[in-house]
Write a structure and sequence with these properties.
alpha/beta; TIM Barrel; Non-ribosomal Peptide Synthetase Peptidyl Carrier Protein, Chain A; nine-stranded parallel β-sheet; two-stranded antiparallel sheet; 13% strand
Length: 333
């Protein structure tokens, strides 16, 4: 049984990676429906929380059905991160997660996210201060290092454990790699096999099929897998991996109707949480993903992306409901 503090996550948990502009409550809802074991908010700026910025504080919204869920924070100033931890703790998540992995220039080049990988001592000092600032379990998501010359994740993992974190998620790329090339899981495996490590180690990067999940579990001995981009528009990845790990058999791919139902739920939750204007606009990035691989869908995708009001979108979705799978064929699974 994998545990983070008192949070029981099962034998081999699947985690939804925190993704900016993706892993909001509407998206988390559809992923939870498909069996994800632990989720996180989008990453939240410590400075934004302290200033009570609307965009940051809205990301603190969590719902009972999402549990267990962690609030993820990032920043470069230790005092600000401590204050942000206290604010996040008051929102009553199940854990606090620190982002030491975001490679985006505007974050990393300010010393936050993956930027702190160039300063391991500061990383340890910041983590220790955050652990002391909350009664909740603290976890970390990070990368192998800044570049190929600084892949120091084995030593960093030991240090993070020593200052009190209770689980570690490792993305198998350096900051310089961004999301290019292949994730290197060998160092994730070395962290896990290090006899000093007692906390759960979760691997992240390039897991997009049940076969890969099983293979990487066997090869690297990790305690669970964190999935990000492969779940966008395809939350069924969680149930497919679980079924395959438990039975060795493949689940049928979701039908057109299942995809449409999930899209409708996602859309309505988006409108409910974000309001009619932002909800419509931010759903546009998801339509192509939900119906990826379906021939003759381009016309409807164009209409959905061009729709300006919730009722306009609902008309198109209802039309798709009435047409059903008759007109659309999955040509590229």
């Amino acid at each position: 049984m994998v545990k983070i503090g008192d949070i029981q996550l099962g034998e081999f948990p699947l985690l939804l990676a925190p993704m900016e502009d993706v892993s909001d409550p509407p998206f988390r809802y559809v992923c939870k429906q498909q069996g994800v074991d632990l989720m996180y908010t989008e990453f939240i700026s410590s400075e934004g929380l302290i200033r009570d910025a609307v965009k940051s504080t809205q990301k603190l919204d969590i719902f009972e059905y999402e549990r267990p869920i962690g609030i993820q924070i990032f920043g470069s100033d230790i005092d600000s991160m401590v204050e942000a931890t206290k604010i996040a703790t008051a929102a009553n998540p199940d854990l606090i997660d620190i982002n030491y992995g975001c490679p985006v220039k505007k974050v990393a080049c300010k010393g936050a996210g993956a930027g702190i990988l160039t300063n391991p001592k500061k990383m340890m000092d910041m983590t220790a201060a955050i652990v002391k600032a909350t009664h909740l379990p603290v976890t970390v998501k990070t990368r192998l290092g800044w570049d190929d010359q600084t892949k120091n994740i084995v030593e960093v993992a030991e240090g993070l454990q020593d200052v009190g974190i209770q689980a570690l998620s490792i993305h198998g790329r350096t900051r310089v790699q961004l999301y290019k090339g292949s994730a290197d899981w060998t160092l994730i495996g070395k962290v896990k096999e290090n006899p000093r490590m007692q906390i759960p180690i979760f691997g992240n990067g390039d897991i997009d099929t049940p076969e890969k999940a099983k293979e990487y579990r066997q090869l690297y001995g990790i305690d669970g897998i964190m999935i990000g981009r492969a779940s966008i528009g395809y939350p069924w990845i969680f149930r497919e991996i679980k079924h395959y790990l438990n039975t060795g058999e493949y689940l049928e791919k979701p039908s057109f109707q299942e995809r449409l139902d999930a899209c409708v739920i996602h859309f309505e939750k988006s409108i409910e949480w974000k309001g009619p204007i932002v909800g419509v606009v931010e759903m546009r990035r998801h339509y192509a993903n939900y119906f990826k691989g379906y021939g003759h869908f381009k016309e409807y995708r164009t209409r959905l992306v061009g729709a300006q009001k919730p009722d306009d979108v609902r008309v198109i979705l209802k039309e798709l409901q009435e047409i059903g799978p008759r007109q659309f064929e999955l040509v590229d699974a």
